[in-house]
Amino acid sequence: MSGRIPLVAYLVLGDEPHLEANECVACGARFFDRRNACAACFATEFRRVPVATSGEVTAFTIVAHAAPGVPVPFVAAVIDCDGTSVRGNVVNVPADDEHVALGMPVRLTTFSMGTDDDGVEAIGFGFEPVAA
Amino acid sequence: MSDDIWILGIHMTKFGKHPDLDTVDLGAQAAIAALADAGVTMSDIGILAAGNLMGSPGIGQQLQKQIGQTGIPVYNVSNACATGATALRTAIMAVKAGECDMGLAVGVEKLAGAGLLGGGGVSKSDANRWAPSGRYGAVAPIDGRIGTATMPGTFAQIGMEYGHKYGGTSFELFARISEKNHSHSTLNPLAAYTKAMSLEQIMGDVMIAYPNTRPMCSANCDGAAAAVVVSGTKLRTLSLEQQRRAVKVAASVLTSDPWTEGCQVLPDVNTLTRNAATQAYEQAGVGPDDLDLVELHDCFATAELVHYDNLGLCEEGGAVDFFGSGAPWRDGRLPVNVSGGLQSKGHPISATGIANIWEVCQHLRGEAGPRQIEGASVGLAHVIGLGSACGVHILERAAA
Questions:
Q1: Bridge partner list, A69
Q2: Span B228-254, mean pLDDT?
Q3: Is B81 one of the annotated active-site residues of the chain?
Q4: B190 vs B186: CA distance, rounded Å
Q5: What is the CA radius of gyration of chain B?
Q6: Which letter, b or e, does each residue of B222-253 get, where b requires 16 or more Cβ atoms within 10 Å of its Cβ?
Q7: Are strands B5-12 and A46-51 parallel, antiparallel or unpaired?
């Protein structure tokens, strides 16, 4: 067996990798996890919608101490992707406060996380700076 | 009014390292001292509400085995960092409902030496095979790969988010907030840390999650706090001395986080605090300008800033200017965290939501010693448990 698998189910691979949200059909609230019902309006019908692949950093931290096995430092951030808040790392940039800033424009990028015993490659995602 | 609720007795243990005391010892110490402070015994108590997160389940019954098994109902509560406030609120609700006229609330935690909290993820299996699991269908632990849910990282982002929205924040600003609290705790002998720290020391310390260095994070430590609450009707049958020292619970509110866009991406600690504050001011019939002191949940320096705004201590977006004016220092217009706050007094999780009320009561009773805020008559205590739960209590000095 071989092939590719996304780090999380809401990452869609292919020619144009993007994130996909569960959007409440009734009220439009968006979620990234498996849903039982809508936390905003309690409806139970959802549709899969693509999330914009570029956005703006609205909050970030540079994590210097993390759980064992997690490489540090890394930049954890919240990205406003055209009205949908997304959690992700800011990558392909030095992890310091001179290279990462609030309001910084970023875009989705994917990368290999390695291959398992079956030859399956896991694909992760992050957000990289866009030249202003 | 007959349904008034009062704090009759309250106690906080020394926060810090208690290697010779276990969780039950610490909780019992706080409970017995709170009962003594109230001038009552376990035979007067009609309900026990108790909170503890890190020990073995059933702290309430474990405490009863040591301090008095009287057969009363016990509620073991768990609400993250708001556990203590939840225990207190549970006792208050029982008295308010008329089920009994006196209740005891206890919060206790053994946390000295605990490391980084939060951010647990999918554990790695022995087999080297990517297999989706959990609500995100993740094939590997996501903390560190998709942002972070660790406490320092989460609250760092919450402070940065405020800066993005309103401007004016910086590493130095957040460090100055911490400098204030570490200065305040020099007057609090029960604080885990009682040494002042300079701005340079704070900014130069070990970085945990930018912009929070180690002294800007709440201090993991051991501690307990307990309170006896009583109905106004019962209080009037007690001694004049008990009535004089009683502190009125003018508002007791607990909220959870309503859905807002992005709240499942980065917790929204703002909306539920604003809701709790609004309800509390309405219940108490007071406003932020009437407060003489505030103990708020500064689990990180970045958190203290946003709660100035959330509690209405400043106008919306004005937290940076509020701090810059010197208002929240102990000699300022509205002293905040004169105990030293969670950053310096310490944060034994389940004790915190009663310990902050103890601090306010000390001042309202005029018993705060060298750190007394002179003439204090109204104070507010706030806690947040991530997940989230927010407790706000407004306390008033008894009329002379």
A1: none
A2: 98
A3: yes
A4: 10
A5: 21
A6: bbbbbbbbbbbebbeebeeebbebbbbbbbbb
A7: unpaired
Domains and CATH numbers, chain B: 5-113+220-397 (3.40.47.10)
Q: How far apart are CA B156 and CA B306, in angstroms?
A: 11
Minimal CA separation from B260 to chain A, in Å? 8
* Angle at CA of residue B336, ends B334 and B341, nearest 5°: 170
Cα–Cα distance for residue pair B400/B398, rounded to 1 Å: 6
CB contact residues (below 8 A), chain B span 296-355, against chain A: none
For residue B241, give both structure tokens: 């001395």
**pLDDT single digits (tens) B83-114:** 999 999 999 999 999 999 999 999 999 999 87
CB contact under 8 A, A83 and B261: yes
pLDDT tens sequence across B117-127: 776 555 555 56
Domain spans of chain A? Answer: 3-129
Find chain B residues with C-beta within 8 A of A9's C-beta: 132, 136-138
Per-residue model confidence as pLDDT tens digits over B325-379? 999 999 999 999 999 999 999 999 999 999 999 999 999 999 999 999 999 999 9
Its pTM surpasses 0.90: yes
B347 as an active site residue: the answer is yes
Q: Is the model's pLDDT at B210 over the cut of 70?
A: yes
Q: How far apart are CA B367 and CA A74, in angstroms?
A: 47
Question: A5, B130: Cβ pair inside 8 Å?
Answer: yes
Provide the phi-psi class of B8: left if phi over 0, else alpha when psi is between -120 and 50, else beta: alpha
- Given a contact cutoff of 8 angstroms between Cβ atoms, the answer to whether A32 and B136 are in contact is yes
Distance of residue B191 Cα from the nearest chain A Cα, in angstroms = 25
